[in-house]
Specification:
Blueprint (H helix, E strand, L loop, with lengths): L1 H17 L6 H20 L6
């Protein structure tokens, strides 16, 4: 879960640097959907032994 959060922060930071004036709600929604998809996949398919 920590990896997902740091990935989200990095994606956010890179986007702000690359496209400072292109930040829109549409991008936020798309990024949020992507992160939810990844989170859901990781929950269903854990890659570490419990």
């Amino acid at each position: 879960m920590q990896a997902i959060k740091s990935l989200s922060r990095r994606l956010n930071k890179i986007t702000m640097e690359e496209y400072p004036d292109k930040r829109t709600d549409n991008f936020d929604a798309a990024a949020c959907s992507l992160m939810n998809l990844i989170t859901g996949y990781c929950v269903e398919h854990p890659y570490t032994e419990k």
